[in-house]
# Entry
Amino acid sequence: EEVLKDLAEGENSLLFVDPSTREYVLRDAYLSGNVRKKLAEAQAAGMSQNVRALESVIPEDVPAHEITGRLGAHWIPVDVYEQFARDLLGEGTRANVVYVAANSSFLASFTAGSEVANRSTYGTGRMAAEDILFALINNREVKVYDTQADGTRVLNMERTQEADDKARTIKDRFNDWLFSDPDRSERLVRAYNDVMNNYVTRRYDGSMMQFPGKVPDDVIKFRRHQRNAIARIVQDRTTLLDHVVGAGKTYTIVAGAMELKRTGLAKKSMVAVPNHLVKQWAADFYRLYPGANILTATKKDFERKNRRRFLAKIATGDWDAVIIAHSSFGFIKPSPEYEQQFNRAQIAELVTVIEAFGDTKKADGQTKRTVKQLQAMKERLEQRIKSLRDRPVDDLLDFGQLGIDQLFVDEAHLFKNLMFVTKMQNVRGLGQAKGSQRAYEMLIKTRQIMNMNGRSQGVVFATGTPVSNSLAEMYHMMRYLEPETIRELGHDTFDAWANTFAEVEQTWMQAMSGAGFKASNRMGKFANAPELLKIYDLVADTVTMEDIKSALAEENPGTQFRTPPPKGGARQPV
# Structure
């Protein structure tokens, strides 16, 4: 107790007392993360030493010219949207906007004061500016339909293009207008920085770590980035090892698991790896830690007749780690009670989005299809809950009964096809909203471990390609590994995240027939990237090839970085 008090005294103290938990926290941990929130807590608790230290690391405000504010961004105050509508639609315009956080939508009503602005300048004879503005603020497509004699509705391409041109004009006007007034600009800068610019990136130093039980350094020596990543795993227990191929993620995970076990921070780790790498992982584990007590799951262990025995072996053994193939990991079902609770929460989210579309009897075909897809997803989850409730209890242990309190997932990009809910329609670059069953079960298991540990702790993903096919993949990685952070930011839904950190651009593509071109909306560009990266870096340990080369040059002056030659001297087609 005396040592702890000594370490927590003075302006350069190595420890701080966290007022929210009354626990001691390392200096670099306390002075990183959401520092504005921590500052408010320290001020409320009257902890002057904490306040002074936090004030010294508060990020500088992002100026107006570096902020992207788009229609539908939740951090923009709703009365600003109301003011824009009045400026856009003329004197006498009535505007009322309410943000619904549950489904990231706006309940809005606009009554234009100027018919010229409404039907000519910013709207068309077929679609008024007030309707276009409502669609834009809610991420809905701008479309014009003709009603046939039999009651069917057919898309009018020419009138839709006219309305879409007006929509782009409104967007441009909003971008020019948003920060044009000094008082409004000052208020928006404050709102953005208070909500989005709260984070300080933590640096991890693994130079002090000793690694008892590891082979000597003259046999296998860790690189600097590996030691730092291992220190991060031990201190945070939740990390995304975003390391380039060849950076040594396997040894980083092995040492991280062994250190968590040695220090008692984790009782039993499970490492899920691609099917063809199970034996290689076991060999590497023993190569680095010859005395490790690990259990390796073979394909035979998960055959029906052997599955019960093997799961019991996992549960009853005091293993340093259990190495298991991705396919075998899929055989282990989440706790039925937790899965029901999780699915009910997902159903509630789907219901709020479906309700946001309102009465779809007169809606266009795309909206009806979107709602139908959402309803199908809801029905699948309801059937899942029913099957869990009605299924006879089998004698196989579920994931929560195995005693696993730390999960490592190698090649985690194989699980990023995660189901998500969005009101965006006909936007390319989002990925598949319905997702895969494999990814959905991984999400349930990761949440179950975090729930069991009491915090967002206990999950480490490793992949060299966390984002490769769509911008939504970054959102999915954040959903997996920092659910509390995105909830705190109001980014529980994809639309809320995308409205702040992604941009939808119109591109022209050749028509399928080859005759002419057609406009296409694509989400292909990040916005407010510095603030997004600060949030991403709360969990992401990123190592590029340039990082490895610069570390090698720094630690071994004069040494040239060389990539090993291919086996056999040249590439061998197989």
In short: The first strand starts at residue 15 and ends at 18. The two ends are 63 Å apart (CA to CA).
